[in-house]
C-alpha cells in the first residue's frame, strides 16, 4: 500500500532475552525453528503492501544485517524505496535530540523522500498476523489523528505486565492510556499516523528534550489528539523475557496455535537451502518441531530443533529449544534447556532447567 511507510523501531529492544541477546539485538533472536523475531512484523508489512521500511537500530545489529540483507525475501530489494537499515550516525553538531528521537532527527531524509502519506510504527516484540491495510482503512474511517493497534488478552501472563493498556469506548476511541495490570486491552506497540503530524510531534518533542516516541508524542498528548483503537483478533504473543520466549516457543507445538500464527498469511524469512531432516535407526521423535538439515539418532520429545542440529545415539532431549547447528553427543540429556547456535554438548552430560526458568547456554559454548 503506497499510502503507508513502515518504521520498525528497535531502539529499546536490546538485552531483554539474557544470554540470547549477548551477541544480537532482540529482533534477531531465532524463533520457531527457522525464523527470527523480526520476520513477523516484516512479513505483516509486506503482505499489507508497504514498500518502504526503515529499521532504527542502535547496537548489536550485525546478526540482523546478515539476516535481512537487502530485503529480498520480503520483496524489498528495490531500486526505489525498499528496506533501509539505519544504524546511528550522530555527526550533526547541532543535533540536540536524545533517546529514540535521535533516529527521527538523523534520518529525516527517509521521511522526506518517501511518497507515502502515513506511517505505521512498530517494534518486533509482539508476534501477530495483523493486517496493516485493514488498520489503515479503520484509521481513515475514524478520522483519527493516530490509531493504536491493540488486542484483548484471553489470559494475562507475566509478559503482559510491562505492556501499556488502553481504555477504548464503544465508538472505538481511546479514552485513556495507562499501566493498570488487570486491564486486558494490550497495546501492541503499533500505531498509524499521518506523516506530517508525526514529524510535527517529533519536532516538538525534540525541542523539549524528550526521548520516547510513544510516551512523549502520543501518551502525553492523549487529550489533544483524537486517538482511535483498532482491535486485532488473532494469534498474539509478547516476547519480552527469556521465560516468555521459552513458553511461547513450545506453545507452537500445539497445532491450533501454530496454525493460527502461520496459516493466516506466510511468514517470510531468509532462504537457506538444507537437505530434509534425517532420522536414523535409533531416532524417536514425538510432538516436536524439526527443521531441515537435522540428523537425529536419539530421542526428542516436546522440543524445537532448528536447522542442522545433530542428535547422536542415546541422547535425550525433552522440553527444549535447540538452535542452529548444535551438536548433542552420545547419551547426553537435556531437559528444559535453551541452546543458542553452534553449542556442543559432549557425551554423557546432563543439563536440566525448570519449566518456569529454563537453563540457557550462550552460542559457541562447549559443555
Describe this structure in words.
The mean pLDDT is 94. The termini are far apart. The chain has 2 domains: 4-262, Spore Coat Polysaccharide Biosynthesis Protein SpsA, Chain A; 278-361, Hexapeptide repeat proteins (UDP N-Acetylglucosamine Acyltransferase, domain 1). The strands form 7 sheets. It has a 7-stranded mixed β-sheet with strand order 5-4-1-6-11-8-12. It has a 5-stranded parallel β-sheet with strand order 14-17-20-23-26, with no helix packed on it. The chain has a 5-stranded parallel β-sheet with strand order 15-18-21-24-27, with no helix packed on it. The chain has helices at 38-47, 62-68, 101-106, 108-113, 132-142, 195-207, 213-218, 242-251, 255-262, and strands at 4-9, 30-31, 35-36, 52-56, 82-86, 118-122, 126-127, 146-152, 165-168, 174-178, 185-194, 227-231, 237-238, 278-279, 284-286, 289-290, 295-296, 299-301, 304-305, 310-311, 316-318, 321-322, 327-328, 333-335, 337-339, 344-345, 350-352, 359-361. A hairpin with a 5-residue loop joins strand 9 and strand 10. It has 367 residues and is an alpha/beta fold. Helices cover 21% and strands 26% of the residues. The radius of gyration is 22 Å and the shape is globular. The chain has 9 helices and 28 strands.
